[in-house]
Amino acid sequence: MARFGMVIDTTRCVGCMDCVVACKTENEVPQGYCRDWIVEEARGAFPDLQLEIRSERCNHCDNPPCVWCCPTGASHVSDFGKLVQIDKEVCIGCKACLAACPYDARYIHPDGYADKCTFCEHRIKDGLDPACVAVCPTHCMHFGDLDDPDSEVSRLILSRRHHTLLAAAGTKPRIYFLT
Ligand code: SF4
Ligand code: SF4
Question: Would the pTM count as exceeding 0.85?
Answer without folding.
Answer: yes
